[in-house]
Amino acid sequence: MLAYRTNHRVISAACDRVCKYLKRNLHFININSTLRFIWYDQIPLLDSGD
Fold first, then answer.
1. Cα→Cα distances 42→4, 15, 26, Å
2. How far is CA 36 from CA 29, 44, 45, in A?
3. Amino acid 50: pLDDT
4. Which helix (H) or strand (E) holds 15?
């Protein structure tokens, strides 16, 4: 039982680390895709000046 409890703690700690990592990266990806969307949104406006 003690081994199970220890493993459970290790697993949940690892999950916490992975969750934090994913949240940070997903936030970064969200910012990138938003910037890309804004950039693509501006392209027709830049083109119409010709």
1. 56, 40, 24
2. 10, 14, 15
3. 52
4. helix 2-47
User: Which residue in this structure is represented by tokens 């690892």?
Assistant: 14
Q: What is the pLDDT of residue 47?
A: 58
Q: What is the pLDDT of residues 1-50, one digit of tens each?
A: 566 676 778 778 887 888 888 888 777 777 777 777 776 666 665 555 55
Separation CA 29–CA 19 (nearest Å): 15
Reported as type and span, the H/E element at residue 45 is helix 2-47
**Token representation of residue 18:** 């992975």
